Amino acid sequence: MKLKYLLRLFSIRFVKFLFFKAPIWRYFLPVMKFDMTIGQLNFMLETINKIKSDGIICEIGVGGGSTSIILNHANKNVNNPRSFYAIDTFYGFLDEDRKYEQQKRNKNYDYLSYRSNSKEWYTKTLIAHGIKNANIYKCDAKLFDFDKIPKIAFCLIDIDLYLPTKKVLPKIYNNLVPGGVIVVDDCSPIQSKYDGAGEAYREFCKEIKHDEDIVLSKLGVIRKSL
Length: 226
Ligand SMILES: C[S@@+](CC[C@H](N)C(=O)[O-])C[C@H]1O[C@@H](n2cnc3c(N)ncnc32)[C@H](O)[C@@H]1O
Fold this sequence. Notes:
The chain is an alpha/beta fold. The chain is built from 8 helices and 7 strands; from the N terminus they run αααβαβααββαβαββ.
């Protein structure tokens, strides 16, 4: 038993030794890449945990799935886990949304990122982290019928650009339970490549007479009163 253990340990250390000596080591290290800071992720988990009303968790714009995995932590060790709904094109930004930024918001970027994902890879990433019952939709969030899914307790909107955020926000708000919370990413008032989401957030706050609430320099929060 001891010899078996020592052999295994030696083999693992030997493979790791070779790996870290090879010039490619930094490209193959299993690193979890997050678009959000630990503080921002923690804020969202704490927010979900404080919501008393029933309802699903929804993430619009999921990318490779790192934030989805964290949001699903809110379902660990609870009696009634909330269903998780994910929506993405899984192929980055749509032409009309990119053109809107370029032509109407005078942004000089191509917005061709996030094309290296797929619904299958996202699904498998969730499964590898023990999340087996997620409801995953590959579509334009602007065209998604939010009335066909259960009422929403928490929604992260993370689609960066003005047009999709503007179109989706009222639909989510209409389907939000009293006591529910929407978080819109990229709402810093500082001008940037992805400041369209923030502009849509600020306009929507005005429309529904909700104070702007920017948490941790980035997350635009909307709370529906009970
Ligand atoms: C910033 S990434 C999401 C990152 C993810 N929330 C995370 O924290 O790991 C933005 C995502 O929005 C998706 N997206 C952009 N426009 C969209 C649209 N109109 N409908 C659905 N998804 C869209 C992109 O494909 C991309 O995966």
